[in-house]
Amino acid sequence: MEDDKIISLFWQRREDAVSAVQEKYGSLLYSVAYRIIGVREDAEECVNDTLLRLWDSIPPELPDNFPGFICRIARNLALDRVKLQSAGKRSHAEAILDELDACVPAPDDTASDVADRLALKRAFERFLASEPPPHRMIFMRRYFYLDDTRDIAKALGITDGGVRVTLYRLRRRLKKYLENEGIKF
């Protein structure tokens, strides 16, 4: 079933919309959650939570990129679950995301921070759009899907060292790009 048809089912509040998402994207959602959580049962529960959150989100949301929208929901729910489960301990996901600490300013959760986060999001999008597709894929697989560098290398047919070097260079370029955009650290 096409994504626009699935979204239309959500807007009509038809329960078969959830079944259609499960059928078309269930394995993708599971893989996103499992890569972050690492426990089968918790990843399955995260997929179910994603479907519920999706039901609550559409309407009013009308996502332009449906797979990206649902993957973001699954990713955020999985990260929240890891934070709860590993209170006081450093998780795999946190270790990967720590790589970006030198490039991206930390949010301060103030009212003015909302505008700053929106500016940061748009700057990220422009940065990634300026990069060649293989670099975008490496960046997204590492920092959105939290893939291991070995898995990225295998999927793209390059060496693990090549992925690590590319990520290092991307982080340096990202930091410089954000500084040129006026994003404060």
What do these coordinates show?
The chain is mainly α. It has two domains: 3-88, Rna Polymerase Sigma Factor, Chain: A, CATH 1.10.1740.10; 99-180, Winged helix-like DNA-binding domain superfamily/Winged helix DNA-binding domain (Arc Repressor Mutant, subunit A). Helix content is 74%, strand content 0%. Helix 2 (16-37) crosses helix 3.
List descriptors.
single chain; 185 residues; mainly alpha; Rna Polymerase Sigma Factor, Chain: A; Arc Repressor Mutant, subunit A; globular
Structure, briefly:
With 185 residues, this protein is an all-alpha fold. It is built from nine helices and no strands. It has two domains: 3-88, RNA polymerase sigma factor, region 2, helix turn helix motif (Rna Polymerase Sigma Factor, Chain: A, Orthogonal Bundle); 99-180, Winged helix-like DNA-binding domain superfamily/Winged helix DNA-binding domain (Arc Repressor Mutant, subunit A, Orthogonal Bundle), CATH 1.10.10.
What is the string of helix and strand elements? Answer: HHHHHHHHH
What level of helicity do the residues show?
A: over 70%
Q: How many separate helices?
A: 9
Shape: globular
CATH level-4 homologous superfamily of the largest domain: RNA polymerase sigma factor, region 2, helix turn helix motif
End-to-end Cα distance, whole Å, is 44 Å
Under CATH, the topology of the largest domain can be stated as Rna Polymerase Sigma Factor, Chain: A
In the CATH classification, which architecture of the largest domain applies? Orthogonal Bundle
Strand content: under 5%
**Tell me about the biggest sheet?**
none
State the secondary-structure class. Answer: mainly alpha
